[in-house]
Recover the amino acids of this structure.
């Protein structure tokens, strides 16, 4: 009883604190509900893919029953995919293209970002904005002129053509992330390095790259994801199965006219999604740190 | 040979704004020179031009007799300590200190010897394996100094190195810096906006204002014989009092009339010097420590008058009394045992041996 009395006697500020805490509770509930809703929406496709990948063709075709449940789980789709040499060629092509694109992207964007963020030269600001603006042009607009260019280089129908083309998507954004990251490094650090006797290249290699590692990792993950998941360009530029990456290989080889090998398509798609998932799982913290620096200081 | 010569150096930015307006300064070998002045006075720009981090618009800078205008920072044989330490965050203390020597391809044993020696001087030997983030502000500043010392350069440049430290640590590091200079004796140019740092560290203080050098001299000379009102007001804490006054000639002796009808005689030794000011409005400059409770009356040239304190600030070892005379704030330093109360008139003694008269138009001390 006395406790109740004491509560009633409390000055206004404590009642306000109580209402704040109830507001906070509401905010938490709203956040949880929204997050659960978002998680369901985003997880539904991969879960459905996984469920379907465990079904036989007959079970997939059978419209009776709940499609979210597996009655007779099987790994035959996975064994079929993994024992199919064409799928391994797709995988190898994707890996080869991605490694090359990531390497090219990181070399170009690191150098470009360092120059744009640190070497004051005429037009550097405009150039930095221009680099980012190129990222805003959709790839669906670019693939026709790029088709001409890749054709002119004799790289149509070759995975090397994709190695040349993907950096047009990855370099602008990676450069932008890195400009932001480099700009967040105190200017005195390069001045100290200059006085210590470092050349521009030594400054980049010994100071900037190690200090900006979170930003570089974020940019690398982005380049990796874009390159691994690209669909429009390979569809436009590659038609021979030997040169196809996973994204279009799975679709082109497992869809025959109007016959869809759904189980294998889903198994293939899940296997294809595995490398990015692994990369994100291990480097998520760096990715967030890198993007945040780019966002606030860029 | 590591003197620094600054000859008619100008720094102009785009749009014609001049940060440094043709300054001349000769810094001798082994000398510790402090550039001091308010924000935007051009002191940091001057230091950065010596370092080669800013291009020189006009004039020339020579280090050890060699004009360095077109020589990049790394070839100037200078070392710089920055306000925010600028330690390489991914390197250990040892690597930070060794970085410059490694780039210059010094033998490993020599690098080790120099780093260990510098670490001993600065008392940071136990920290050599730590990363900068594991150090306190004072330790970081020591490492930054160590990085400069190991290079054994011709000139040390310090850009407000103590500004990021708390007051207690600042005093401690100030002593450290002075001790290090006494040990290594490298020519040093030190920039600060803190006049106490300037006074305590410098062999000579260079007071800058609006891109020009107002006065150069040993700390005591600047304190006792300022040449301009700016220097008189900038050096010393609390600042010198400037009271509107008029010099009058009466019966062969000069006297200064202050507000509230206070008149003080000009000491005989200064009569000739101030003769030209007779009949003119001037500023009467006197430091708070020369405006005290009544004491030392047996000395010459002590004037006693009555003033009414408005604010009393007991500081422990002294008490500051503030009052206003015709709009001018006046600060007096009195003994803490002297009774003083706001609003109660009391007698003050001005030591006229230390008075200054300033031309209010030119700002020059007469």
């Amino acid at each position: 009883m006395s406790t109740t009395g004491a509560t009633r006697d409390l000055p206004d500020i404590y009642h306000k604190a109580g209402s704040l805490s109830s507001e906070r509770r509401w905010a938490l509930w709203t956040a949880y509900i929204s997050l659960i809703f978002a998680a369901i929406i985003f997880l539904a496709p991969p879960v459905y893919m996984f469920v379907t990948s465990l079904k036989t063709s007959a079970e997939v075709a059978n419209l009776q029953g709940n499609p979210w449940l597996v009655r007779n789980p099987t790994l035959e789709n996975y064994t079929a995919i993994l024992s199919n040499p064409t799928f391994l060629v797709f995988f190898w092509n994707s890996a080869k293209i991605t490694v090359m694109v990531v390497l090219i992207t990181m070399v170009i964007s690191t150098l470009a970002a360092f120059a744009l963020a640190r070497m004051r030269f005429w037009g550097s600001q405009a150039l930095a904005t221009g680099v980012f603006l190129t990222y805003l042009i959709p790839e669906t607009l670019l693939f026709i002129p790029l088709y001409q260019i890749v054709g002119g280089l004799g790289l149509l129908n070759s995975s090397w053509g994709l190695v040349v083309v993907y950096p047009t998507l990855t370099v602008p954004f990676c450069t932008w992330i890195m400009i932001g990251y480099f700009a967040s490094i105190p200017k005195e650090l390069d001045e100290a390095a200059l006085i210590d006797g470092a050349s521009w290249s030594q400054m980049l290699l010994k100071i900037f790259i190690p200090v900006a590692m979170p930003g570089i990792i974020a940019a690398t993950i982005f380049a990796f994801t874009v390159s691994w998941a690209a669909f429009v360009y390979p569809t436009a530029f590659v038609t021979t199965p030997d040169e196809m990456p996973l994204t279009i290989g799975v679709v082109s080889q497992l869809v025959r006219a109007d016959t869809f090998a759904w189980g294998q398509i889903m198994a293939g798609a899940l296997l294809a999604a595995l490398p990015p998932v692994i990369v994100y799982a291990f480097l998520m913290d760096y990715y967030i740190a890198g993007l945040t620096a780019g966002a606030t200081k860029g | 040979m590591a003197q620094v010569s600054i000859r008619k150096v100008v720094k102009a930015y785009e749009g014609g704004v001049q940060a440094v307006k043709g300054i001349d300064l000769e810094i001798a070998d082994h000398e510790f020179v402090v550039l001091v002045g308010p924000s935007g006075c051009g002191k940091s720009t001057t230091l950065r031009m010596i370092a080669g981090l800013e291009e020189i618009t006009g004039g020339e800078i020579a280090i050890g007799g060699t004009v360095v205008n077109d020589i990049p920072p790394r070839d100037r044989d200078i070392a710089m300590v920055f306000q925010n330490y600028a330690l390489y965050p991914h390197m250990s203390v040892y690597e930070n200190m060794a970085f410059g020597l490694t780039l210059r391809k010094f033998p490993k044993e020599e690098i080790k010897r120099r780093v260990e020696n510098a670490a001993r001087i600065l008392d940071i030997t136990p920290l050599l394996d730590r990363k900068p983030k594991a150090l306190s502000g004072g330790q970081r500043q020591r490492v930054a100094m160590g990085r400069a010392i190991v290079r054994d350069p011709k000139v040390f440049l310090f850009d407000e190195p103590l500004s990021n430290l708390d007051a207690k640590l600042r005093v401690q590091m100030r002593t450290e810096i002075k001790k290090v200079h006494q040990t290594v004796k490298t020519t040093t140019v030190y920039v600060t906006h803190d006049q106490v740092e300037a006074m305590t560290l410098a062999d000579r203080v260079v007071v800058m204002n609006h891109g020009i050098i107002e006065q150069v001299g040993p700390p005591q000379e600047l304190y006792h014989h300022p040449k301009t009102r700016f220097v008189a007001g900038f050096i010393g804490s609390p600042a010198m009092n400037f009271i509107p006054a008029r010099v009058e000639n009466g019966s062969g002796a000069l006297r200064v009339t202050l507000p509230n009808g206070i008149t003080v005689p000009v000491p005989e030794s200064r009569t000739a010097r101030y003769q030209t000011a007779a009949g003119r409005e001037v500023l009467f400059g006197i430091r708070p420590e020369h405006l005290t409770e009544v004491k030392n009356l047996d000395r010459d040239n002590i004037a006693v008058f009555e003033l009414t304190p408005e604010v009393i600030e007991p500081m422990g070892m002294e008490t500051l009394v503030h009052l206003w005379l015709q709009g001018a704030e006046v600060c007096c330093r009195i003994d803490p045992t002297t009774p003083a109360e706001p609003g109660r008139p009391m007698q003050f003694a001005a030591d006229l041996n230390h008075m200054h008269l300033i031309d209010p138009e030119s700002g020059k001390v007469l």
